[in-house]
């Protein structure tokens, strides 16, 4: 199991488009990936769960992956979050 | 008759008949239980979900075809909602509790809507509407009730609705939809985003003021003002029509002049640039045809925060502006703040006369770390475009020399670290203190350009605070005293082979432009919206 604490850099946070990309990216990996914010944990396969975290700009989330490709999965998600995915320009 | 005030969501003016768009609410008995088997109900839900998948794909494709890929992306989220495991589990649970298929779908989606509605962030609350829209589609598919849309209106009209979901506006009858007026919504709602994309006026968040309006009513909509006139009188109509004409004329001016170069009869080209406050203003500046940026006010990066912006943050902001303008030059003005602003982390002492105190470059020279961080960030970003640096509020030549020493030490640091930067970037100063204009001959030796800040130059010339209403009569930027200082500055620049520009309200004032051009000005920088008119004036000289 690997875990990483990440900061959401998008202007609008993990809302519709960024959350969609986040979920799509997570789905590319075999590992079970969970994300936690302020004590609530959801599965990353679950877009409503991810949206319901209400992770706005600069909020801190904990991403946890378990499986064969766990570190690759975390790398991909981290890149996504730090490069400001799916921004409205 | 009566004017209603809502939220301005998309600029434009329209007058027309009302078209009430209330996609029939599905009346659903949420308590309805039935004896249909669990398997059959789940099968029905899965078929309905599948058919909504097709609908959403079609809407997605339709928007892509219209080149609106940004708006179309919302439908990727729609498809994910349809596949969401939480929703599926909730639907199955309700079905097992004996609810009818439609009631189970509705309840499951509403649970998620509630979850989103409770979030503090407005962006997230907007998503609640999307989820409700998807749920509504699945329920309709189950019940065999098609969804109403705006694809074809019976007559040209202003659409009045409770709120619009992205799918509603995915295919809009461009011939007949004149504008949108909604009861709910905010500046970030889909109605606003889509109306802007379509170039149609929209006023949102009107509440129930239009609940009783019928399709015989006429509305006047002013999307920039956020007002809706119900059954406009002939006078109100005339005012709206005049506004629409002015908008059209502005638009015409824009299309005609935005890509033109402002070249004088003698072949001299005047650079007509934009004043901006940050990366957020770039799109507007480019839309109005700016030849570059004549004044990038960097102080917004420093305000409303608890610590100074890091070098990286600054590099990112400057680079994004420079990249957007490419070969068109961008003048980055170094920090222009003083004791009149509340910047807790700078611990600026209170001053009796902050406008005559330690501000702008005076502050920068006393806080070399702050100043050098900014210069370093500008140099690092400089490779992204055509960069010019400008020191504000220079009173005497020594200040330029000191600032340049700091710049020189930053260059050495970067050289030592092998960090690339534009070695030939121009460095200039703002002339906004009379002493600088009067001594411009000596200053010109030490700069690549002057930019005359007419707002401050005027107030310092007359020693009159321009925000003091009692001294309005002393705010005369076209007074011979000011014009004399401007001319001295331009002549000093030219006699040393340098160039001079103007930033400040005067640069965009139609009556001032011919005077400034006659005095030999090389560049004018103004708020973006004034650029097309300024180019028109210059080309007509």
From TrEMBL, chain A:
For this protein, the record's Pfam families field holds:
PTS-HPr
Keywords carried by this UniProt record: Cytoplasm, Phosphotransferase system
Q: Per the annotation, which location comes first and is thus the protein's main one?
A: cytoplasm
Q: Where in the cell is it found?
A: Cytoplasm
InterPro entries named in the record: HPr (IPR050399), HPr-like (IPR000032), HPr-like_sf (IPR035895), PTS_HPr_His_P_site (IPR001020)
List this protein's GO terms for biological process: phosphoenolpyruvate-dependent sugar phosphotransferase system
- Domain HPr, chain residue ranges per copy: 1-89
Query: What PROSITE patterns does this protein's entry cite?
Result: PTS_HPR_DOM (PS51350), PTS_HPR_HIS (PS00369)
Query: Which Gene Ontology terms of cellular component type are present?
Result: cytoplasm
UniProt xrefs under PANTHER family: PHOSPHOCARRIER PROTEIN HPR, PHOSPHOCARRIER PROTEIN NPR
Q: Would you identify the family this protein belongs to, as annotated?
A: Belongs to the HPr family.
Protein's UniProt name: HPr family phosphocarrier protein
Q: Which organism is it from?
A: Candidatus Cryosericum terrychapinii
UniProtKB/TrEMBL annotation, chain B:
Q: Which reaction does it catalyse?
A: L-histidyl-[protein] + phosphoenolpyruvate = N(pros)-phospho-L-histidyl-[protein] + pyruvate
What Gene Ontology biological process does one annotation of this record name?
A: phosphoenolpyruvate-dependent sugar phosphotransferase system
Q: Per the entry, which co-factors are needed? A: Mg(2+)
An annotated GO cellular component of this protein is: cytoplasm
Domain PEP-utilising enzyme mobile, which positions? 156-226
Q: Active site annotated at which positions?
A: 190, 503
> Looking at the record's lineage, which domain of life comes first?
Bacteria
Q: Keyword DNA-binding, does the record have it?
A: no
Protein residues bound to phosphoenolpyruvate: 297, 333, 455-456, 466
Q: What class of enzyme is it?
A: transferase
**Positions that bind Mg(2+):** 432, 456
Provide the alphabetized UniProt keywords. Cytoplasm, Kinase, Magnesium, Metal-binding, Phosphotransferase system, Pyruvate, Sugar transport, Transferase, Transport
EC number, as in UniProt: 2.7.3.9
Which GO molecular function terms does the record list? kinase activity; metal ion binding; phosphoenolpyruvate-protein phosphotransferase activity
Domain (PEP-utilising enzyme C-terminal) ranges: 254-539
Domain Phosphotransferase system enzyme I N-terminal, by residue range, is: 5-127
Predominant place of localization: cytoplasm
Which InterPro entries does the record cross-reference, listed alphabetically? Answer: PEP-util_enz_mobile_dom (IPR008279), PEP-utilizing_PTS_enzyme (IPR050499), PEP_util_C (IPR000121), PEP_util_CS (IPR023151), Phosphohistidine_dom_sf (IPR036637), PTS_EI (IPR024692), PTS_EI-like (IPR006318), PTS_EIN (IPR008731)
Location relative to the cell: Cytoplasm
Q: Which family does it belong to?
A: Belongs to the PEP-utilizing enzyme family.
**Main role?**
General (non sugar-specific) component of the phosphoenolpyruvate-dependent sugar phosphotransferase system (sugar PTS). This major carbohydrate active-transport system catalyzes the phosphorylation of incoming sugar substrates concomitantly with their translocation across the cell membrane. Enzyme I transfers the phosphoryl group from phosphoenolpyruvate (PEP) to the phosphoryl carrier protein (HPr).
The protein, known as: Phosphoenolpyruvate-protein phosphotransferase
- Name of the gene this protein is made from: ptsP
